[in-house]
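W.,

You were right to be curious about this one. When I first looked at the sequence I had no strong expectations either way, so I just let the prediction run and decided to look at it fresh. Below is the sequence, 253 residues in total, followed by the output.
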Amino acid sequence: MLNLNLPRYLPSADELPDSDDAPVDNELQELIPGLLKAILLILWAERMDWFFGVDMGIYYHPDESAIVPDGFLSLGVERFYDEELRPSYVLWDEKVVPIFVLEVVSPKYRKEYSDKLNDYAALGVLYYVIYSSQRRRKPRLEVHKLVNGKYELQTGNPVWLPEIGLGIGCERGNYCGVTREWMYWYDEQGQRYPTPQEQIKQAQQQAQLAQEQAQLAQQQAQQEAQRAQQEAQRAQQLAERLRALGIDPDNLI
């Protein structure tokens, strides 16, 4: 894709529209990729070689309109340029094709299974993921991998993506106060990575447990100190009784 016959003088990302200005048809088209990005921001917090775009235009030619997926992931690129961040993703500047693209199907069909599939294959996107909550007889999550220029449907839930080092899948959970099926990242053993809210809750539980353990340890220390004081008092009382009987307790040692 990057070897297209491009014009000599090319516009920068700042000179191009940052999206197609089309409103989303369903709130899930924002929330699902937003959740995946939020998990990555914690999971890959120390890494600066990745970028996850949400509803952002991907430009492959200055004379063509941008392709605007619901979400996409690129590896081997700068996570941040500067404080203004990316207005769009321009392939002739980035020189890296997204490795992962996500489309969330809304009630208004947008050719996710036809034109977009062909467009992403032409771009060279390795993984094209489609999620449709409206499906009943077919899997709601489809993971397509580009093999010899054509997409092949992968099986399983989650599906391991070795080139990314993550799995992608869906299951019921709670996000933004809504309990339903959401998409998540998984490890190689199929264990789901927690959401930011879940991590906060886990951290709070761990802090509460640590506090309870510290309080218990303090109580135990106080009890030990009390027992030691009681033993010292009993020893002193015994010594006084012995002296009263004319016995020097020091001579008994």
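Here's what jumped out at me. The CA atoms of residues 143 and 154 lie 5 Å apart. And, maybe more interesting for your project: The mean pLDDT is 84.

Coffee later to discuss?

I.
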